[in-house]
Model the fold of this input.
Amino acid sequence: MTADVLIRNARPFGGPVEDLFIRDGRFVAPDRTGPVVEIDAAGHIALPGLVEAHTHLDKTLIGMDWFENRVGPTRNDRILADRNAKRELGISARRQSARQILQTLVYGVLSIRSHVDVDTEIGLANIDGVLETREAMRDLVDVQVVAFPQSGMLPREGTLELMDAALRAGADIVGGIDPATIERDPIRHLDAIFALADRHGKPVDIHLHEPGELGAFCLELIAERTRALSLQGQVMVSHAYCLGMLDVARQSALIDTLAQERIAVMTVGSPSAPALPLRLMRQAGLTVSSGSDGIQGTWDPFGSGDMLERAKYLAQRNGMASDVDLEETVRICTFGGADGIGLGGYGFSKGCFGDLVLVPARTLAEAVALTPLRRTVIRRGRVVVDGGKLAGDLPEIE
Amino acid sequence: MTADVLIRNARPFGGPVEDLFIRDGRFVAPDRTGPVVEIDAAGHIALPGLVEAHTHLDKTLIGMDWFENRVGPTRNDRILADRNAKRELGISARRQSARQILQTLVYGVLSIRSHVDVDTEIGLANIDGVLETREAMRDLVDVQVVAFPQSGMLPREGTLELMDAALRAGADIVGGIDPATIERDPIRHLDAIFALADRHGKPVDIHLHEPGELGAFCLELIAERTRALSLQGQVMVSHAYCLGMLDVARQSALIDTLAQERIAVMTVGSPSAPALPLRLMRQAGLTVSSGSDGIQGTWDPFGSGDMLERAKYLAQRNGMASDVDLEETVRICTFGGADGIGLGGYGFSKGCFGDLVLVPARTLAEAVALTPLRRTVIRRGRVVVDGGKLAGDLPEIE
Done:
């Protein structure tokens, strides 16, 4: 039997000071029947675990030689460079995913949805690598694996079968990619990935960079298939730039369609991509999640993986400065993420998992604006990061 | 006589390893005639001092109580909230400017151009406060003071006279503000501030948020007056959002006009404001500088003041990811800033001031992407920041 954990003087989601009690890895009402470990939160803000709803654990170059980026500006240039790098740099998906997970654990990221490449060149190697890391890291972080056809599915024969194999091997989610601009056949692409999802009983997550009305058309196709297969609450659209490229009336209509089918949207708040209408989306009851996308890879060298910094990106991209708006961005990077990727037992309610991140800040807005780094991270009642440093036993990384 | 300083194993601007020699506060050819202090740069990149070309030292709330931002979204809402805050929060320009200067010194910011409010309510109090701090901090950092009519000049009678008084009291530069949308009379506003500049023999720096063709018109008016008064190389336009809101042909024509009169442009790369055509601007030979704008103030709570992080903002806003592009953003935050605000003796050439920032990074692109914080900062040959911590004697701040 492990000791109960009493966290004194924490401020859940920036509210008043409270004590939090964890038994057997879950929040419960405090009592005193056994040994108790006490932790003084010193009035810091307690966030539930930060949620990374969209990254590419198999693509990061953290800890490797410097990659000189001479890649051209188009998405195809980048996909090609990415595929070359996998071959030439010998990126180990197992090792690199472990490095990124430990780096972001320090910030308090306790749940990760990662797209993982499946293609006819590497086959399932990256899926296998990330699944190994997931197993090795299971006491530190939850990882969801999306079988992702980065190099295209329809244009590369055999990819669909590999995705099917990936889902049988343990991948959790069916990934899709721009059905028009990359796949060149939106109907066939979407029909194929929704059929996979239906057959495996697994959710869908689609990279959708398609612009303007082309993107809007694809969103409608996605909604139609979600309804037809009763996949409400099981579909996420990642990026959805088109929502930031249309007039307000069209935006609203699309947002309503997405809300009706409970399709979640993931946005990284990229400074150089269209800004999504966050306020409209949340007002319509849409689930909005966020993520870091690739961290320190061949696409670009940026990214810490800190989802509190990501809240800052969301705010800054949208010109948000008020305390209320900044709180909303924290919600997107916590509860919004949890809803979007379908986490159970998330939050501070009794019965939820005893996960939290203590952030030294006076208000949620300050936490977003200054992203203080000396955080303490507790998972299932166990301190895994203490004042910004990894604590306790860690799995070895080669 | 102070000892000479020999910095071994530095990589100026990311180039090959070199030794740098400083005598009497300036880089000179190495020799061995007197006592020498040796510093091992351990192969770190050496940047010349980072240049903050646009901030508001009198507006930061660093170290004060948390300001709950409930300010409306328009520029006028923010100007009003700003003026109320000055009155109600008792912001001491002297103390707050000192706090910001020390905070950004840690990053390696050694030269600062600060706009400082002049208005009919506070008069010259903020100018006096920042000038006091400048004197107290003169061994650490260079500060230029712009007499800035934040609350409007033409609409508030007496402001022009106060600006005149500020310039006599020691302000270095004549500030201007949106000649149309705030001042409501572009000709009269610009004529007045250029006349001030002419009379005092001082440069001009104009906040120009005016959108699209309205902004373009104001840029033309500024260029006409620059030419008429032979103020080439003495005028900076800050923000210049209009350059990011026009088609390429119009952009190019305006950029040529600015280049002809050697008018510099300052952009902060704000994620929510129009992205300026950085590449076009630099190709045309335009001087491009950057700055943090307000740090942790009533306008918004963001901002560290780190000009290397600012290079990252510039890159990300413009979708730049290649090493060459990232190097360009470092250039904007160093040499571009120095050109724009007219610093003499800047850089690593013999005879230049012995100022540098050692950054632990493999390449300039990595320095931008990861903005490492354990920097060492040397000013006039003296270590003022050692591995990310202030070093040596510091002036007291109340």
The first helix of chain A runs from residue 75 to 88. DSSP finds eleven helices and 17 strands in chain A. The radius of gyration of chain A is 21 Å. Chain A has two domains: 4-47+351-390, 50-341.
